[in-house]
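Bit of a strange request maybe. I'm writing a small parser for structure token strings and I need a real example to test against, not something I typed by hand. Could someone generate the tokens for this chain?
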Amino acid sequence: MSTVLSYPSADFPAPVRVSIDCPEDWAPLPEVALPLALAKVVAPGEFRPNVIVVVSRTRKQFTLENAVSEVVTKLTGLAGYAELGREEREIAGHPGFRIEGAFTDAEGGTLVQAVRTTIVDRGPVVDLVQVTGSCSGAQAEQLLVEIRAIQESLRIEE
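Reply from user aminoacidic:
Good idea to test on real output. This should exercise your parser:
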């Protein structure tokens, strides 16, 4: 006799639900095929500052320390990377990590990225939630505070 498996279920839980505030002068980007994405409305030809939210399903053994190691390795390996700061901090009610840095991009010049990472226990698995904000180096002084505020508005529903 066979057993019927279904999704979502206790054995195969649905991913967490995420939401984030979109300021008036930002616009949703549903076409990028991510759980959530938004970009600031800017003049044509300017780099579009953006914030994206990615939810990834991982094995139960995957820890916040693993997630931190992955994001630090990725960022520090970028050309001309200069770290602006990092800290352990709560992300949407869960233990998390924040790192920010600048790097050189062949097309965009100097870019600044702010990444916040957390994991959410989903029973037999965990969900990795990352919210990443990007802007050009020239925009950073004005927009990094705004990007951080958008990141801070992240809500995770289990």
